[in-house]
Design goal:
It contains eleven helices and nine strands. By secondary structure, the protein is of the alpha+beta class. Strand 2 and strand 3 form a beta hairpin. It binds adenosine-5'-triphosphate.
Amino acid sequence: MAQIKLQNVEDYYEIGEVLGSGHFGQVRAVLERASKVHWAGKFLKLRRSASSRLGLERKSVEREVEILQSLQHANVMALRDVFESRAEVVLIVELISGGELFDFIAEKESLSEEEAIEFLKQILMGVGFMHTKNIAHFDLKPENIMLADKTMPHPHIKIIDFGLAHCLKQGEEYRSLSGTPQYIDNDEETLKNIVGMIYEFEENYFTQTSTMAKDFIEKLLVKDPIERMTADECLVHPWIKPLTRKQADNRSRSSINMKSFKKFNAKRKWKMSYNMVWACNRLFRLQLQCKSRSPEDPELRQCESDQEDTETKPASLIRRRLSSSS
Ligand code: ATP
């Protein structure tokens, strides 16, 4: 069971500015009063009642805490402390100040495959470590890959957000709908292509890409997980670890198509803002509805807890924490 303190977090930490927000709460800068060390606090709203759909189930928060406690690795966000009050759980975690990896890359004029591999290697080391503990992240996406300090010559990768992560048990099959649908395009044909593993390296985007990089991608886009490269196998693939001088030279000559990358990143950011505005508007309308009713109105109680889930949401807002396993 996760060690969760019942004291008031504010007795130990001074709460500062908002650093980011997710579906279940905010992440804020916090200052440890005793040591004057800066950390980040992830404030997670707890579900008020079993029937409510707002907030997180306590067991889901406990799972995130337990997983973070078991993952002490240079490329995984470290957990320092956990506090619980009636309404929320606060995770005190290491402060990651370098922003998202993709934003850092998008600011660059060029990026060779060799430079990209430096980042990828660190992601693979973090993921490989998780897998040695039988932990699957289930939500690896650009937003969850951050940099410890982007001003360093070789910035350090930190993997964040273990809200959907699961510790898998030997011999048990895990089935879940978890993930961020923003990256699961809801266009029917795209979905068919994903299920059927139908893809091609389009000329427009892949002219500057090395054959080794394409081989690496092909070995990951394999439906059967047994046949798919593991994180450790990825680390010894010749694209990541070249065997010959020629392979190494190819990597440094090949580069990332920055025009497409910047376009992709801008579109991703736009979608994220759209979803945030949509969610805020929805909550605002709900508050208005609640205020216009009497407190005795049973629907008012419903609207405080559940109603926001009754309307159709854009795909990216249906991110859920499911614990279904079979
Ligand atoms: P989501 O619903 O998007 O998965 P979440 O509620 O699980 O989010 P996180 O993804 O963990 O929350 O954090 C939300 C945002 O807060 C991140 O995208 C990031 O910008 C910021 N953030 C998270 N952890 C840290 C940290 N340790 N240091 C600095 N900023 C952070």
